[in-house]
Every structure is written in C-alpha cells, then in structure tokens.
Amino acid sequence: MSWLRRFLPSRPLRSRLPLWTHRYVPSRPPTTRKLVHYSKRAVQFLGFLWLFEEWGADVRLAWGASMLPTLRHDTSIVLVSKYPPAFRPPNLKVGDLVVAQSPLKQHWQVLKRVVGLPGDTICVDPSGAVRGHGGWEDGGGGREHVVVPRGHVWLAGDNMSASIDSRTFGPISLALLKGKVFYRIWPDPGPLENTLRELDTGDEDI
C-alpha cells in the first residue's frame, strides 16, 4: 500500500493552503457569552465617564474679554474640578477661578474670580466707573462697601471694564457654583494658580 500513500494528502487542506489565504478563511462567530461580556464592559466604561464628568473634572470652553489677560478673549479650553468640596469654604479661597450659574440667564454660566468670601467687606467697584449697577451703586460711582452675606461669594472679572459680575448682580449663592477652574489646556497649557496674595501692611504707613 506504500504506492497509495503518495496520492493521499499528508496534511489537512487548511495547512496546505498558502499563508496569504488563511486570513480569508471564515472564523467562528462570537458566542452570546462574549457579546454579553463586551456589552457589560461598554456600559461600565460609559458609567465611569459619566461619574467622572459629574463629580470629577470637565473640559470647558471659555471666551470673552472679561478675564483678560488670564484667559484669551476669543477661545480658551480649561479644565474644571466638579468635586464639590473643592469649591466650598474652607477650600475655596479668594483669588480662585470658578464657574457659576449666571443669575441673569438661566442657561448661561460665567467664569469669574472669587474676590470675596462670606463675611468679607468688599468695595463694590474699585474702578469707580458709573455702570448702572442698580442697588450696588451709589453716587460715588460704586465705591461703597458691602459685607458678603453668609452662604455667598463675590465674583469679579480680571478685566473689570468688560465684565458683568457681582457689581451687576450682587453676591452669588454658593449653590450656584458649578466648579473650580484649575488648569488651562489651550493655549499655553499649564495650571491656573491663585495669583492673589494677601497684603500684609504691618505697621508701615501707606
């Protein structure tokens, strides 16, 4: 029977095919168990993204001239911490950048700097410009002083000449704060640190 072995295939048909044809051999479809496994992983990943965006950090676009020169007037991309203890006293400090719900527009949020905490005495408008600030302005051009109420903060833009802030809508409730801005992604990536420092005059004459 040795003469017959020369005519019988010594290997399976698949192994005798050229290597480039192996990729076209149909594979076995995924099982139901694998589909369920991958579906669960996808749901878990989406849930993690939702939790991170709601309670971790969020990417925001900021534009307008009110925060010059800290942020560009056209478009800046910033990272906002949405972890509540990060933007509540005592972690919230004067000089921090925050995102807040606008008291003037229901679906609008503003990015401003905290210049007064509960109990602080604030000069309404240090620039002295007469801007029609309603109840927050007097005949002296808004230079009267007010005490920030409990549970509120006083917000202002770095570029006060082009900012609608607490000089217009007064102190804002802590409940309206939505996050604390801590990093600029674009342009000039880097942390947005608190640039305000407490002035220690001591006994020196001013």
UniProtKB/TrEMBL annotation:
Every Peptidase S26 domain range: 44-125, 146-186
GO biological process: protein processing involved in protein targeting to mitochondrion; signal peptide processing
Main location: mitochondrion
Active site: S66, K112
Cellular component, GO annotation: mitochondrial inner membrane peptidase complex
GO MF, one annotated term: serine-type endopeptidase activity
EC number: 3.4.21.-
Protein location: Mitochondrion inner membrane
PROSITE patterns linked to this entry: SPASE_I_2
InterPro entries named in the record: LexA/Signal_pep-like_sf, Mito_IMP1_subunit, Pept_S26A_signal_pept_1, Pept_S26A_signal_pept_1_Lys-AS, Peptidase_S26
Domain of life per record: Eukaryota
Pfam families on file: Peptidase_S26
Keywords: Hydrolase, Membrane, Mitochondrion, Mitochondrion inner membrane, Protease
Family: Belongs to the peptidase S26 family. IMP1 subfamily.
NCBIfam families per the UniProt record, alphabetical: sigpep_I_bact
Protein name per its UniProtKB record: Mitochondrial inner membrane protease subunit
Species in which this protein is naturally found: Calocera viscosa (strain TUFC12733)
